[in-house]
Amino acid sequence: MKARRTWDIFCSVVDNFGDIGVCWRLARQLTSERGQSVRLWVNDLASFHRLCRRVDPARELQIVDAVEVRHWGVPFPQVAPADIVIEGFGVRLPDAYVEAMAARSPHPVWINLEYLSAESWVDGCHGLPSPHPGLPLVKHFFFPGFTFATGGLLRESGLTEARDAFQSDPAAMTAFWRSLDLPQGGALRVSLFCYGNAALPALVEAWSSDRLPVVCIVPEGKALTQLSQIAGQRIEPGSRIELGSLSVAAIPFLDLDQYDRLLWACDVNFVRGEDSFVRAQFAARPLVWQAYPQDEGAHLNKSAAFLARYASALGTAAGPVYCAFAEAWNRESADVGKYWAELRCHRDALAAHARNWAGNLAAGGSLAIKLAEFCEDRLKYPVF
Ligand code: TRH
Question: Hey, which bits of 252-303 come out as E strands?
Protein backbone atom coordinates (compact mmCIF):
# COMPACT_ATOMS: atom_id res chain seq x y z
CA MET A 1 0.00 0.00 0.00
CA LYS A 2 1.52 3.35 -1.08
CA ALA A 3 1.38 6.19 1.44
CA ARG A 4 -0.68 9.16 0.26
CA ARG A 5 1.73 12.06 0.62
CA THR A 6 1.13 15.73 -0.03
CA TRP A 7 3.27 17.42 -2.69
CA ASP A 8 3.90 21.04 -3.61
CA ILE A 9 5.37 21.41 -7.10
CA PHE A 10 6.65 24.90 -7.97
CA CYS A 11 6.84 25.85 -11.64
CA SER A 12 7.99 29.16 -13.02
CA VAL A 13 7.35 29.69 -16.72
CA VAL A 14 10.04 32.01 -18.07
CA ASP A 15 9.63 32.25 -21.82
CA ASN A 16 9.00 28.73 -23.10
CA PHE A 17 6.75 25.77 -22.46
CA GLY A 18 9.11 23.01 -21.31
CA ASP A 19 8.99 23.81 -17.59
CA ILE A 20 5.22 23.65 -17.36
CA GLY A 21 5.09 20.68 -19.75
CA VAL A 22 7.33 18.66 -17.43
CA CYS A 23 5.75 19.84 -14.15
CA TRP A 24 2.22 19.18 -15.43
CA ARG A 25 3.09 15.69 -16.65
CA LEU A 26 4.71 14.91 -13.30
CA ALA A 27 1.74 16.26 -11.30
CA ARG A 28 -0.75 14.28 -13.39
CA GLN A 29 1.17 11.05 -13.08
CA LEU A 30 1.70 11.33 -9.34
CA THR A 31 -2.04 11.74 -8.79
CA SER A 32 -3.36 9.28 -11.34
CA GLU A 33 -0.82 6.49 -10.90
CA ARG A 34 0.43 6.91 -7.32
CA GLY A 35 -2.69 8.35 -5.67
CA GLN A 36 -0.68 11.31 -4.33
CA SER A 37 -2.19 14.63 -3.29
CA VAL A 38 -0.53 17.25 -5.50
CA ARG A 39 -0.67 21.03 -5.44
CA LEU A 40 0.93 22.64 -8.51
CA TRP A 41 2.00 26.29 -8.21
CA VAL A 42 2.36 28.03 -11.58
CA ASN A 43 3.27 31.69 -12.11
CA ASP A 44 1.85 31.86 -15.66
CA LEU A 45 -1.54 30.20 -16.09
CA ALA A 46 -1.98 31.62 -19.61
CA SER A 47 0.98 29.53 -20.88
CA PHE A 48 -0.35 26.54 -18.96
CA HIS A 49 -3.74 27.01 -20.65
CA ARG A 50 -2.10 26.59 -24.07
CA LEU A 51 -0.94 23.10 -23.10
CA CYS A 52 -4.11 22.18 -21.24
CA ARG A 53 -7.27 24.01 -22.33
CA ARG A 54 -9.13 23.01 -19.16
CA VAL A 55 -6.93 25.32 -17.12
CA ASP A 56 -8.71 28.64 -16.60
CA PRO A 57 -6.06 31.40 -16.58
CA ALA A 58 -8.34 33.63 -14.49
CA ARG A 59 -8.73 31.27 -11.54
CA GLU A 60 -6.37 31.39 -8.57
CA LEU A 61 -7.34 27.89 -7.46
CA GLN A 62 -8.81 25.06 -9.51
CA ILE A 63 -8.80 21.27 -9.67
CA VAL A 64 -7.70 19.82 -12.99
CA ASP A 65 -7.34 16.04 -13.41
CA ALA A 66 -7.35 15.72 -9.60
CA VAL A 67 -4.38 18.11 -9.31
CA GLU A 68 -4.89 21.27 -7.26
CA VAL A 69 -3.65 24.02 -9.57
CA ARG A 70 -2.71 27.26 -7.81
CA HIS A 71 -1.64 30.56 -9.28
CA TRP A 72 1.82 31.39 -7.89
CA GLY A 73 1.38 35.10 -7.36
CA VAL A 74 3.02 37.79 -5.26
CA PRO A 75 2.63 38.00 -2.31
CA PHE A 76 2.67 34.27 -1.78
CA PRO A 77 -0.19 33.09 0.46
CA GLN A 78 0.49 31.64 3.87
CA VAL A 79 0.14 27.88 3.42
CA ALA A 80 1.39 24.86 5.32
CA PRO A 81 4.19 23.21 3.32
CA ALA A 82 3.58 19.74 1.92
CA ASP A 83 5.41 16.50 2.82
CA ILE A 84 7.38 16.75 -0.42
CA VAL A 85 8.41 19.99 -2.09
CA ILE A 86 9.59 20.03 -5.71
CA GLU A 87 11.23 23.07 -7.22
CA GLY A 88 11.10 22.75 -10.98
CA PHE A 89 14.49 23.53 -12.58
CA GLY A 90 16.07 25.45 -9.71
CA VAL A 91 13.28 27.98 -9.31
CA ARG A 92 13.61 30.09 -6.16
CA LEU A 93 10.91 29.27 -3.61
CA PRO A 94 9.20 32.10 -1.69
CA ASP A 95 11.31 32.94 1.43
CA ALA A 96 8.34 32.65 3.79
CA TYR A 97 7.54 29.22 2.40
CA VAL A 98 11.14 28.00 2.97
CA GLU A 99 11.02 29.31 6.54
CA ALA A 100 7.75 27.43 7.06
CA MET A 101 9.48 24.29 5.71
CA ALA A 102 12.21 24.69 8.33
CA ALA A 103 9.63 25.18 11.09
CA ARG A 104 7.62 22.12 10.08
CA SER A 105 8.08 18.81 11.84
CA PRO A 106 9.07 16.60 10.20
CA HIS A 107 10.83 18.76 7.61
CA PRO A 108 9.58 18.24 4.08
CA VAL A 109 11.68 16.36 1.55
CA TRP A 110 12.99 19.06 -0.76
CA ILE A 111 13.89 18.23 -4.36
CA ASN A 112 15.35 20.30 -7.15
CA LEU A 113 14.11 18.64 -10.34
CA GLU A 114 16.90 19.29 -12.84
CA TYR A 115 17.10 19.56 -16.63
CA LEU A 116 17.60 16.47 -18.75
CA SER A 117 21.02 15.75 -20.17
CA ALA A 118 22.59 12.66 -21.74
CA GLU A 119 26.03 13.69 -20.46
CA SER A 120 27.78 11.06 -18.34
CA TRP A 121 28.40 13.35 -15.32
CA VAL A 122 24.67 13.19 -14.57
CA ASP A 123 25.05 9.63 -13.23
CA GLY A 124 27.34 10.88 -10.45
CA CYS A 125 25.28 13.95 -9.53
CA HIS A 126 21.82 12.42 -9.44
CA GLY A 127 20.47 12.30 -5.89
CA LEU A 128 23.22 14.37 -4.28
CA PRO A 129 22.25 16.39 -1.16
CA SER A 130 22.85 20.10 -0.66
CA PRO A 131 22.37 21.36 2.92
CA HIS A 132 20.77 24.80 3.28
CA PRO A 133 23.39 27.33 4.46
CA GLY A 134 21.29 28.71 7.31
CA LEU A 135 18.31 26.43 7.95
CA PRO A 136 17.98 22.78 9.01
CA LEU A 137 16.94 21.71 5.51
CA VAL A 138 18.53 19.56 2.83
CA LYS A 139 17.76 19.83 -0.85
CA HIS A 140 18.39 16.86 -3.16
CA PHE A 141 19.19 17.12 -6.85
CA PHE A 142 17.08 14.83 -8.98
CA PHE A 143 18.32 14.42 -12.55
CA PRO A 144 16.29 12.92 -15.38
CA GLY A 145 18.45 10.83 -17.67
CA PHE A 146 18.99 7.85 -19.90
CA THR A 147 20.70 5.39 -17.56
CA PHE A 148 19.50 3.52 -14.50
CA ALA A 149 21.83 5.61 -12.31
CA THR A 150 19.72 8.71 -13.10
CA GLY A 151 16.10 9.59 -12.34
CA GLY A 152 14.91 8.19 -15.70
CA LEU A 153 12.38 9.82 -18.00
CA LEU A 154 8.79 10.92 -17.49
CA ARG A 155 6.62 8.19 -19.00
CA GLU A 156 3.06 7.57 -17.98
CA SER A 157 1.93 3.95 -17.86
CA GLY A 158 0.04 2.91 -20.97
CA LEU A 159 1.96 5.32 -23.22
CA THR A 160 3.43 2.61 -25.48
CA GLU A 161 0.09 0.85 -25.82
CA ALA A 162 -1.74 4.11 -26.66
CA ARG A 163 0.91 5.04 -29.23
CA ASP A 164 0.92 1.60 -30.86
CA ALA A 165 -2.88 1.51 -31.01
CA PHE A 166 -2.91 4.91 -32.72
CA GLN A 167 -0.09 4.15 -35.15
CA SER A 168 -1.66 0.85 -36.23
CA ASP A 169 -5.16 2.28 -36.67
CA PRO A 170 -5.57 3.92 -40.11
CA ALA A 171 -9.01 5.28 -39.13
CA ALA A 172 -7.58 7.02 -36.05
CA MET A 173 -4.77 8.47 -38.14
CA THR A 174 -7.19 9.71 -40.83
CA ALA A 175 -9.44 11.27 -38.18
CA PHE A 176 -6.43 13.01 -36.67
CA TRP A 177 -5.28 14.52 -39.97
CA ARG A 178 -8.86 15.54 -40.70
CA SER A 179 -9.08 17.29 -37.31
CA LEU A 180 -6.13 19.41 -38.45
CA ASP A 181 -7.71 19.94 -41.85
CA LEU A 182 -4.82 18.17 -43.57
CA PRO A 183 -5.12 15.47 -46.25
CA GLN A 184 -3.36 12.15 -45.72
CA GLY A 185 -0.70 10.33 -47.72
CA GLY A 186 1.72 11.13 -50.50
CA ALA A 187 4.47 13.26 -49.11
CA LEU A 188 6.94 12.86 -46.25
CA ARG A 189 5.36 14.38 -43.14
CA VAL A 190 7.67 16.42 -40.98
CA SER A 191 6.63 18.28 -37.84
CA LEU A 192 8.70 21.34 -37.01
CA PHE A 193 9.14 22.75 -33.50
CA CYS A 194 12.39 24.68 -33.07
CA TYR A 195 13.96 27.87 -31.78
CA GLY A 196 14.86 30.58 -34.27
CA ASN A 197 17.50 28.72 -36.27
CA ALA A 198 19.85 30.29 -38.82
CA ALA A 199 19.96 26.94 -40.63
CA LEU A 200 16.24 26.94 -41.42
CA PRO A 201 16.48 28.85 -44.75
CA ALA A 202 18.96 26.23 -46.08
CA LEU A 203 16.66 23.42 -44.96
CA VAL A 204 13.64 25.05 -46.59
CA GLU A 205 15.67 25.42 -49.79
CA ALA A 206 16.66 21.73 -49.68
CA TRP A 207 13.07 20.64 -49.08
CA SER A 208 11.64 22.85 -51.84
CA SER A 209 14.13 21.72 -54.46
CA ASP A 210 14.08 18.01 -53.54
CA ARG A 211 12.24 15.53 -55.74
CA LEU A 212 10.66 13.99 -52.62
CA PRO A 213 7.61 16.05 -51.65
CA VAL A 214 7.62 17.18 -48.02
CA VAL A 215 4.73 18.48 -45.94
CA CYS A 216 6.12 20.49 -43.06
CA ILE A 217 3.55 20.81 -40.28
CA VAL A 218 4.28 23.75 -38.03
CA PRO A 219 2.42 24.69 -34.87
CA GLU A 220 2.07 28.42 -34.23
CA GLY A 221 5.23 29.83 -32.62
CA LYS A 222 8.85 30.77 -33.36
CA ALA A 223 9.29 28.28 -36.22
CA LEU A 224 6.19 29.56 -37.97
CA THR A 225 7.30 33.16 -37.57
CA GLN A 226 10.66 32.33 -39.13
CA LEU A 227 9.06 30.34 -41.95
CA SER A 228 6.86 33.36 -42.71
CA GLN A 229 10.00 35.50 -42.99
CA ILE A 230 11.67 32.97 -45.28
CA ALA A 231 8.57 32.70 -47.48
CA GLY A 232 8.16 36.48 -47.53
CA GLN A 233 4.53 36.22 -46.52
CA ARG A 234 2.64 35.81 -43.28
CA ILE A 235 1.55 32.19 -42.85
CA GLU A 236 -1.51 32.03 -40.60
CA PRO A 237 -2.34 28.93 -38.55
CA GLY A 238 -4.85 26.94 -40.60
CA SER A 239 -3.31 27.99 -43.92
CA ARG A 240 -0.95 26.25 -46.29
CA ILE A 241 1.62 27.53 -48.78
CA GLU A 242 3.60 25.74 -51.49
CA LEU A 243 7.31 26.34 -52.09
CA GLY A 244 8.31 23.95 -54.89
CA SER A 245 8.26 20.40 -53.48
CA LEU A 246 7.63 21.76 -50.01
CA SER A 247 4.20 22.38 -48.61
CA VAL A 248 4.11 24.32 -45.34
CA ALA A 249 1.00 23.56 -43.29
CA ALA A 250 0.55 25.93 -40.38
CA ILE A 251 -1.56 24.65 -37.51
CA PRO A 252 -2.61 26.12 -34.17
CA PHE A 253 -0.52 25.33 -31.06
CA LEU A 254 -1.93 21.97 -29.96
CA ASP A 255 -2.69 20.88 -26.44
CA LEU A 256 -0.21 18.44 -24.89
CA ASP A 257 -2.09 15.26 -25.80
CA GLN A 258 -2.82 16.35 -29.36
CA TYR A 259 0.82 17.30 -29.81
CA ASP A 260 1.72 13.72 -28.85
CA ARG A 261 -0.54 12.50 -31.64
CA LEU A 262 1.19 14.80 -34.10
CA LEU A 263 4.53 13.25 -33.11
CA TRP A 264 3.07 9.76 -33.46
CA ALA A 265 1.59 10.55 -36.88
CA CYS A 266 4.57 12.23 -38.59
CA ASP A 267 7.44 10.48 -40.39
CA VAL A 268 10.08 12.78 -38.89
CA ASN A 269 9.83 15.19 -35.93
CA PHE A 270 11.98 18.24 -35.34
CA VAL A 271 11.78 18.99 -31.61
CA ARG A 272 13.56 21.18 -29.10
CA GLY A 273 14.23 21.83 -25.40
CA GLU A 274 13.33 18.98 -23.11
CA ASP A 275 9.76 17.79 -23.07
CA SER A 276 9.05 17.61 -26.83
CA PHE A 277 12.49 15.97 -27.15
CA VAL A 278 11.47 13.17 -24.78
CA ARG A 279 8.02 12.77 -26.28
CA ALA A 280 9.50 12.51 -29.79
CA GLN A 281 11.69 9.64 -28.59
CA PHE A 282 8.66 7.86 -27.15
CA ALA A 283 6.84 8.48 -30.45
CA ALA A 284 9.16 5.87 -32.00
CA ARG A 285 9.66 8.00 -35.10
CA PRO A 286 12.92 9.57 -36.32
CA LEU A 287 13.67 12.86 -34.62
CA VAL A 288 16.01 15.82 -34.95
CA TRP A 289 16.61 17.66 -31.70
CA GLN A 290 17.56 21.30 -31.26
CA ALA A 291 18.98 21.75 -27.75
CA TYR A 292 18.05 24.99 -25.95
CA PRO A 293 20.79 27.42 -27.12
CA GLN A 294 23.11 28.39 -24.27
CA ASP A 295 26.10 30.67 -23.87
CA GLU A 296 29.53 29.30 -24.72
CA GLY A 297 28.02 26.45 -26.71
CA ALA A 298 27.00 24.32 -23.70
CA HIS A 299 24.06 23.08 -25.77
CA LEU A 300 26.48 21.63 -28.33
CA ASN A 301 27.92 19.35 -25.64
CA LYS A 302 24.40 18.28 -24.72
CA SER A 303 23.55 17.56 -28.31
CA ALA A 304 26.81 15.63 -28.84
CA ALA A 305 26.20 13.54 -25.69
CA PHE A 306 22.75 12.59 -26.90
CA LEU A 307 23.98 11.81 -30.41
CA ALA A 308 26.72 9.58 -29.03
CA ARG A 309 24.06 7.47 -27.31
CA TYR A 310 21.37 7.67 -29.98
CA ALA A 311 23.47 7.11 -33.09
CA SER A 312 25.72 4.36 -31.72
CA ALA A 313 23.32 1.65 -32.91
CA LEU A 314 22.41 3.36 -36.17
CA GLY A 315 25.07 1.66 -38.23
CA THR A 316 27.97 2.94 -40.30
CA ALA A 317 25.82 4.14 -43.20
CA ALA A 318 23.04 6.11 -41.49
CA GLY A 319 24.88 7.01 -38.25
CA PRO A 320 27.47 9.48 -39.59
CA VAL A 321 25.04 11.34 -41.83
CA TYR A 322 22.43 11.53 -39.07
CA CYS A 323 25.05 13.00 -36.69
CA ALA A 324 26.34 15.40 -39.31
CA PHE A 325 22.81 16.67 -39.97
CA ALA A 326 21.88 16.99 -36.28
CA GLU A 327 25.17 18.73 -35.43
CA ALA A 328 24.71 21.18 -38.28
CA TRP A 329 21.16 21.89 -37.08
CA ASN A 330 22.44 22.68 -33.58
CA ARG A 331 25.35 24.75 -34.90
CA GLU A 332 22.76 26.53 -37.08
CA SER A 333 24.87 25.79 -40.15
CA ALA A 334 23.60 25.88 -43.73
CA ASP A 335 25.20 22.43 -44.13
CA VAL A 336 21.83 20.96 -43.16
CA GLY A 337 20.77 21.64 -46.75
CA LYS A 338 23.67 19.60 -48.06
CA TYR A 339 22.98 16.66 -45.70
CA TRP A 340 19.20 16.46 -46.12
CA ALA A 341 19.13 14.57 -49.44
CA GLU A 342 21.56 12.00 -48.05
CA LEU A 343 19.73 11.69 -44.76
CA ARG A 344 16.37 10.92 -46.26
CA CYS A 345 17.89 8.01 -48.24
CA HIS A 346 18.29 6.30 -44.84
CA ARG A 347 14.63 6.69 -43.93
CA ASP A 348 14.00 2.98 -43.35
CA ALA A 349 17.07 2.54 -41.15
CA LEU A 350 16.18 5.67 -39.17
CA ALA A 351 12.57 4.49 -38.70
CA ALA A 352 13.64 1.03 -37.50
CA HIS A 353 16.18 2.58 -35.15
CA ALA A 354 13.64 5.02 -33.70
CA ARG A 355 11.41 2.08 -32.82
CA ASN A 356 14.18 0.15 -31.11
CA TRP A 357 15.33 3.25 -29.27
CA ALA A 358 11.84 3.88 -27.91
CA GLY A 359 11.66 0.28 -26.71
CA ASN A 360 15.02 0.57 -24.92
CA LEU A 361 14.22 3.86 -23.18
CA ALA A 362 12.54 2.01 -20.32
CA ALA A 363 16.03 0.99 -19.11
CA GLY A 364 16.45 4.28 -17.23
CA GLY A 365 13.15 3.77 -15.38
CA SER A 366 10.04 5.92 -14.96
CA LEU A 367 10.84 9.31 -13.45
CA ALA A 368 7.62 9.80 -11.44
CA ILE A 369 7.94 6.39 -9.84
CA LYS A 370 11.65 6.77 -9.08
CA LEU A 371 11.03 10.22 -7.66
CA ALA A 372 8.17 9.02 -5.44
CA GLU A 373 10.34 6.16 -4.14
CA PHE A 374 13.34 8.44 -3.61
CA CYS A 375 11.19 10.85 -1.55
CA GLU A 376 9.51 8.05 0.40
CA ASP A 377 12.93 6.74 1.48
CA ARG A 378 13.92 10.20 2.71
CA LEU A 379 10.65 10.62 4.59
CA LYS A 380 11.25 7.30 6.33
CA TYR A 381 14.91 8.03 7.11
CA PRO A 382 15.17 11.83 7.49
CA VAL A 383 18.58 13.55 7.55
CA PHE A 384 17.59 16.08 10.23
O1 TRH B 1 9.30 25.24 -24.93
P2 TRH B 1 10.66 24.69 -24.83
O3 TRH B 1 11.68 25.38 -25.60
O4 TRH B 1 11.08 24.63 -23.33
C5 TRH B 1 12.42 24.88 -22.95
C6 TRH B 1 13.04 23.65 -22.40
O7 TRH B 1 12.34 23.08 -21.34
C8 TRH B 1 14.43 24.01 -21.96
O9 TRH B 1 15.07 22.90 -21.39
C10 TRH B 1 14.36 25.17 -20.97
O11 TRH B 1 15.62 25.50 -20.57
C12 TRH B 1 13.68 26.32 -21.63
O13 TRH B 1 12.40 25.94 -22.06
C14 TRH B 1 13.54 27.50 -20.69
O15 TRH B 1 10.67 23.16 -25.34
P16 TRH B 1 10.05 21.84 -24.68
O17 TRH B 1 10.81 21.47 -23.45
O18 TRH B 1 9.98 20.84 -25.74
O19 TRH B 1 8.60 22.24 -24.24
C20 TRH B 1 7.58 22.45 -25.14
C21 TRH B 1 6.27 21.98 -24.56
O22 TRH B 1 5.19 22.43 -25.35
C23 TRH B 1 6.18 20.47 -24.50
O24 TRH B 1 5.57 20.11 -23.28
C25 TRH B 1 5.27 20.11 -25.64
C26 TRH B 1 4.38 21.32 -25.69
N27 TRH B 1 3.72 21.59 -26.99
C28 TRH B 1 2.36 21.48 -27.05
O29 TRH B 1 1.70 21.10 -26.07
N30 TRH B 1 1.74 21.80 -28.24
C31 TRH B 1 2.43 22.19 -29.33
O32 TRH B 1 1.80 22.45 -30.39
C33 TRH B 1 3.85 22.26 -29.24
C34 TRH B 1 4.64 22.68 -30.46
C35 TRH B 1 4.46 21.96 -28.05
Answer: 268-272, 287-290
